[in-house]
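We treat protein structure as text, and this decision shapes the records that our systems exchange. We quote a single record here, exactly as it is kept in our systems:
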Amino acid sequence: MLYCAIKQQMEKGPIDAITGEARYSLSEDKLIRQQIDYKQLTLMCIPPEGEAGTEIPVKVLNCDTVTQVKDKLLDAVYKGIPYSQRPQAEDMDLEWRQGRLTRIILQDEDITTKIESDWKRLNTLAHYQVTDGSLVALVQKQVSVYNIANSFTFTRSLSRY
């Protein structure tokens, strides 16, 4: 219960996906000191194997990376289930549904990732321009050549983010 309360407090503000520094950290060493503009969004999440009409409202930040959003969605969807029995964020894709036919898979790194000199910026909800009240779904990860090559590059170059 204490863990959940601390986690909920920390997730009220931005958390650096690489360093773990947070706006509302309990540790002085892990505080984000720079000012970051962000907005809170409420996404309507369709759980894995969920049907239309079973959406769960989940609060996220527009500065959250795709993996951070997947973690928050999984926490909300599997609230009463032990962590060891939940699917992991890396095994799921985040699908943004716009209307009936348009579905976009959101990823931390893809062809739209911004590169500044030698640094890559992880994709966030703001990068994809996801709006408040958007419908998203957690789906089983789709295996593609891009994902396989991308995951190898991502783990090798983590220090460059």
Notes: Confidence is low (pLDDT under 50) at residues 151-157.
